[in-house]
Each structure stands twice: as C-alpha cells, then as structure tokens.
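Example: Rod shape-determining protein MreD.
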Amino acid sequence: MNFRNYAIALSIIAALVLQIMPMPASVDPFRPDWVFLVLAYWTLALPNRVNVGVAFINGLLLDILLGTALGVHSFAMCSCIFVLAANYQRLRNYSVWQQSVIVGLLAALYHLIVFWLQYLLTDVNFLFSYLWPVFTSMALWPWIFSLLRKVRRQLRIT
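Written out as structure tokens, the predicted fold is:
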C-alpha cells in the first residue's frame, strides 16, 4: 500500500476522529479545532490539492458528526479556508509563530461564524468559553505544522 497517495486523506480522517473523540468535561471546552488545523496546513502547503471544496466536504462531515444543522460548519470552514487559499503565497513566508497568530484569528472567525449561524437557527447565547479552542488551536499550530511538514517531506507529497 502506497501511503503517499493517502496521507492527506488519512490525516484529515485522524483530525475528524480527534474532533469527536470523547474527552473529560473539564477539558472539552478547550478542544482544539483539529480539522481546521489540518486543513489549514494542507491548504498552505498544497493549495492545488486541498482547497475550499475539501473544506466544504469536511465541514459537512463535521455537521453530521457533531449533530449541528447541515451547512453550519461547512460554511464557516469554507470561509476560513478561502482566506488561507487566497493568501497562501504570502502566508508561507511568515514564521511559524506569525502563522500561529493568523491561524488563531481565522479560528476565531470560524467560531464566530458557527456561533452566528447557530444563533440565527437556534437562538443560542454567546459564552466566552466558545473561544477557548481558538487559543488551544493557536498553541498547537507549531506542532501540527512541524508534524505534517515532516510527513509531507518524508513521503514526498507534491
């Protein structure tokens, strides 16, 4: 089996599993946006293979797995990945720490779009705890970046 052809798909599947994996109630509000982080890396690294279409499909999968209204996560994911895909040449030149701040801002945008759509559909109230995943995603970006870059280089994925 040639993992080179399936590495991107396997990393996205692993992110989907991590996104729905049960966690203790005290830690769950801090769960990073695994799918967004993995899609952000692959969009910056290979924008011709992972782009808004892949984000749309994974957003729909997140909607199904998390039980939200169909299209909520999909729209939010597409919006953020579009920003990354449109500016990937500029963002590649930033250091990992600068990219971490940008990923944090986009994760905040992602959560605010999800909240806004859920507010329109179900009338939920905003809590600051909705934004904890932004900080954990920002903190994890350098490690996700390093891990996926190592995978991409070892498997020579282009």
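Helices lie at 7-20, 34-45, 52-66, 72-86, 88-92, 96-122, 132-155.
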